[in-house]
Amino acid sequence: MTTEHGGHAAPANATEYIQHHLTHNSNGTINLDTFWISLILGFVFLGLFYMASRRATSGVPGKLQNFVEWIMEMVNETVNSAFHAKSKVIAPLAITIFVWVWLMNAMDFLPVDLLPKLLSYAGVNYLRVVPTADVNHTFGMSFGVLLCIIGFSIKAKGVGGWGKELFTAPFHAHSPIAIILLAPVNFIFQMLELFAKPISLSLRLFGNMYAGELIFILIALLPWWAQWMLGGPWAIFHILIVTLQAFVFMALTVVYLALAVEKH
């Protein structure tokens, strides 16, 4: 059962409240809330870094320049420690992944009802504000990582070298008969390894952010004084989760691409 509020249906009990906040604004093909929020945050990332680059100075840096330089140094250390091949793409890719995923995760810090309430006056009845709590989005990002893995492998080893590796590793053989017998086994293991990487990458991020979003929704159901008592400590702890999950997604992407360019 629902009640009318501001011309729109509002949840009447806890179950409907939770279901309402876990329902996407979808057109039947894509989740529009995930698409637009992630797109806007992507432009926010580009705008901040462009602004920092325009304001960069060799003298006393400002707060924005310090912040951007700190992120770049942190990401560069991760890339240099894991990726030993030469690539002009890997560092910008890692920075993009870390900052973009962090921004999407950080949407969880907004009050649960803030954006849904504001957009309800514009006729938007459903809105989920954390794109990384949408498994479709995390799978989409991990599919992009999968394409990068294949692309980096082919660039480093050539189409023939990559194709040969699919049938000759991890179990190596020298005689023609053993090579033929082991080829199907190697191919199966290679496919399992190839697809397990993006699947685990996607589900790890989705699971953590979905759980965080659900806890905030449950806290929002409590009396106002209990919301502050429980919401404050959880929000502080969630800062670690938001940052850690962005870092893990970025670091594992770098590791997977490093493995892709190495020869068995």
Automatic annotation (TrEMBL):
Q: Name one GO cellular component term.
A: plasma membrane
Q: How does it sit in the membrane?
A: Multi-pass membrane protein
Keywords carried by this UniProt record: ATP synthesis, Cell membrane, CF(0), Hydrogen ion transport, Ion transport, Membrane, Transmembrane, Transmembrane helix, Transport
Transmembrane regions: 35-53, 89-107, 171-189, 210-228, 234-259
- Tell me the GO molecular function terms: proton-transporting ATP synthase activity, rotational mechanism
Q: Does the keyword Flavoprotein apply?
A: no
Recorded superkingdom: Bacteria
User: Which compartments is it annotated to reside in?
Assistant: Cell membrane; Membrane
Q: Alphabetically, which GO biological process terms does the record hold?
A: proton motive force-driven plasma membrane ATP synthesis
| Transport listed as a keyword | yes
Q: List the InterPro entries hit by this protein, alphabetically.
A: ATP_syn_F0_a_bact/chloroplast, ATP_synth_F0_asu, ATP_synth_F0_asu_AS, F0_ATP_A_sf
Provide the function of this protein: Key component of the proton channel; it plays a direct role in the translocation of protons across the membrane.
Which protein family is it in? Belongs to the ATPase A chain family.
Q: State the name under which the record lists this protein.
A: ATP synthase subunit a
Q: Which organism is the protein's source? A: Pseudoduganella guangdongensis
